[in-house]
Each structure stands twice: as structure tokens, then as C-alpha cells.
Design goal:
Elements: H1 3-12, H2 24-38, E1 45-49, E2 63-69, H3 72-84, H4 91-96, E3 101-107, E4 110-119, H5 123-137, H6 139-155, H7 160-178
Parallel strand pairs: 2-4
Antiparallel strand pairs: 1-2, 3-4
Helix pairs in contact: 5-6, 6-7
């Protein structure tokens, strides 16, 4: 499957959650190590984020990776080399993003990884890590998030954008209540 086919399939891929998989942390570590090996001068830090980074939480089985870079210019310069390293992206989608770039890996008929390139230490960086850390530290919040994600995955099974928007509202509220 080529990059265009992968992206087209990803756009219409159903939202399906799976129980926590003990392999998710090692899948992240393997990809982090691969990225550091391939781009050692470009990444300042690489973090595991998203639901697969929270022990016990159900998730879409896609490893979310936060790649910290010096600047958005570095992020933009990394897109082509990352695509040569088995990532795909949509330049149109990235043009809509402020403060980050998005890429994905696709294998065995499904997405396996999302890579979010952001400036290390930026507000975007801090917020993504803060939510992950809040879920890891607050079991009740993680359970509420999971319960809502299961409802949203049923309500928006064929509408990934609506599912993502619903999660975004929850995340914003959780982070606002922490400050």
C-alpha cells in the first residue's frame, strides 16, 4: 500500500478501542530508539503520549509519540526524511496545524504510530505531557476518560474528527481543573 492509499484508508478508518496491551510500552521504546538512531541530531526528546502511554487504559492501538525539536523549521525539514523512514503524512492537514506537525506509520492494514512533532518545551509540549501525567497519577480521571472514550467511540465510530473533538473537550477541562 502506498502513502496515498494509506492516508485515504486512515481517514475513513473506524474508531475502535482495544483493552490495554502490555506490548504498547515496548512498541513505543522500539520506535523511539529507531527514531533516535535515524535522526539523533534532530530530536531533543521523544515521549510516549496518548492512551497507550497510560497503564490499564483502553485505546485505539496506535502508539502516540511526541517528538521534541528545536523549532517548527526543524519539524518541517524532518517531514521528507521521516516519510522515507516509513512515515506518511498529509501536507494539507499539516498546513492547518499550529505549533505541531503530524505523521503516521501504517503496517499490516492499519495505523500503528502517530508522530507529533512539536517544539520541545513549548506550550503544546507541556500540555500533552501534563495530560498524560495527570491520567497516570489520577486513576479516577483515567477511568472517567476511558468511560467517555468508549461512549464516543460508539457515537462517532465513523467520524474520527468528532471523536477527536470530544476527547479534546475532555482534555481541556481536565487540564483547566488542574490549574
Amino acid at each position: 500500500m502506498d502513502e496515498v492509499e494509506s492516508l485515504e484508508k486512515a481517514i475513513v478508518e473506524e474508531v475502535t478501542l482495544f483493552p490495554y496491551n502490555e506490548k504498547w510500552p515496548s512498541m513505543f521504546e522500539a520506535e523511539r530508539d529507531r527514531l533516535f538512531h535515524l535522526f539523533s541530531d534532530d530530536f531533543l526528546a521523544i515521549e510516549h503520549i496518548g492512551s497507550t502511554a497510560v497503564y490499564g487504559l483502553s485505546a485505539k492501538p496506535i502508539i502516540d509519540i511526541l517528538g521534541g525539536v528545536d523549532s517548527m523549521a526543524v519539524a518541517d525539514a524532518l517531514i521528507a526524511p521521516l516519510c522515507r523512514a516509513n512515515y506518511a503524512t498529509s501536507m494539507e492537514f499539516n498546513a492547518l496545524l499550529v505549533g505541531r506537525r503530524w505523521l503516521m506509520r501504517y503496517a499490516e492494514g492499519r495505523r500503528t504510530h502517530h508522530l507529533h512533532l512539536v517544539v520541545c518545551g513549548s506550550q503544546e509540549w507541556k500540555l500533552r505531557l501534563a495530560f498524560r501525567d495527570k491520567l497516570r497519577a489520577d486513576t479516577e480521571l483515567a477511568q472517567r476518560y476511558e468511560k467517555n472514550k468508549l461512549l464516543w467511540s460508539n457515537d462517532f465510530k465513523l467520524d474520527r474528527e468528532a471523536y477527536t473533538a470530544a476527547k479534546g473537550d475532555f482534555i481541556r477541562q481536565a487540564l483547566e481543573s488542574a490549574t
